[in-house]
Amino acid sequence: MISRLLSAALAAGFLAAVVTTGLQLSLTSPLILEAERYETRDAQAAESRSPALPIVHAHLQRVHGGHDHGAAPDAPREWQPGEGLPRMAFTGLATLIGGVGYALLLGAVMLALGREPTPERALGFAIAGFLSVALAPGLGLPPELPGSEAAPLAARQAWWLMTAVATGMGLYLIAIRRAAISIVGGLVLIVAPHVVGAPEVAATKSELPAGLAAQFAARSLAVGFVFWAVIGLAYGWAWQVFGRGRAANGPARA
Amino acid sequence: MTTAIQTLSGTRTNERLSAIVLAAFLGLGLVFCAGFAPAAALHNAAHDFRHTQNFPCH
């Protein structure tokens, strides 16, 4: 069972990464590169006004593509992939790692709830995953281009995590438990993070055109949806395929 | 016969539990590496993926 789950998750993560990397490179990466041109201009202006903070410094190096623009000499140079092909390759690698990770979590949840993964059922769970980690956190913290700085990272990560967990739990209570009381509890869980409120969204001035940011947010959610849909469909398919060979060895191994 | 079935289902329950724990642990670890790990090198490598998949970044 363990190897069936791991194999199915690897296959699903790989397929999802192939599809999603193509979409990221053609839809969202060009917008990120475009935004970094504005960010570089902003950052250079800021740099000339005040000494770089460590976090700003790390960011500047990301932005400057490895060129040193007179940053603080004591800060070590952070590694980053070269522009062009290496950067695309690492985006693909990160997508693969994230895809396999999400597929493993999908498999763990379906196994824990005793749901036999078929493509249809796994797609349902994957859509719940998309709602939990992409759409719900995106309501408070919309997908951002580089350069639109917001609240401190730790606060945003904490809110993101809390929203993802609460939405997932809420969907479980509503869609799996289905009792009246759990549906109410589920709705409360889903709404609560938004009542509490996300850390303040960027109110800073940026030369980044609003159209660019809006286009990025929409494309990013669309790419996220495809990512999860492929993970779900492929996981259900791969689970069935990897189960077929084992059925001959006895149901206990299934 | 009954004992055999109980043993079988006991083994399957244990195997199921360990599969769930292993997959959840590995999955959380991988998602953390790709989406949250604070190390600058990891952040830079996964930068475009994090922005697109709406992980809080920077």
Descriptive overview:
The complex is a heterodimer of chains A (254) and B (58). Chain A is mostly helical. Chain A has one domain. Chain A is 74% helix and 0% strand. Chain A has helices at residues 2-49, 54-64, 85-112, 119-140, 153-177, 180-196, 210-247. Mean pLDDT of chain A is 86; it is low at 51-73 and 250-254. By secondary structure, chain B is an all-alpha fold. Chain B has a domain at 23-58. Chain B is built from three helices and no strands. Chain B has helices at residues 2-35, 40-45, 47-52. Residues 1-5 of chain B have low confidence and may be disordered. Chains A and B meet through helix 1, helix 2, helix 3, helix 4 and helix 5 of A and helix 1, helix 2 and helix 3 of B.
Compact summary:
The complex is a heterodimer of chains A (254) and B (58). With 254 residues, chain A is mostly helical.
Give, in order, the helices and strands of chain B. HHH
- Tell me, what's the shape of chain B? elongated
Radius of gyration of chain A: 21 Å
Q: What is the straight-line distance between the termini of chain A?
A: 6 Å
What characterizes the major β-sheet of chain B? none
Class derived from helix and strand content of chain B: mainly alpha
The number of strands of chain B is 0
Please count the beta strands of chain A (DSSP E, at least 2 residues each). Answer: 0
**Main sheet specs of chain A:** none
Report the largest inter-chain contact. Answer: A-B, 57 and 41 residues
Mean pLDDT of chain B: 86
Give the percentage of residues in beta strands of chain B: under 5%
Helical stretch tally of chain B: 3
The overall pLDDT average of chain A reads 86
Decide which structural class fits the backbone of chain A: mainly alpha
Name the poorly predicted regions of chain B. Answer: 1-5
Residue fraction in strands of chain A? under 5%
Helix content of chain B: over 70%
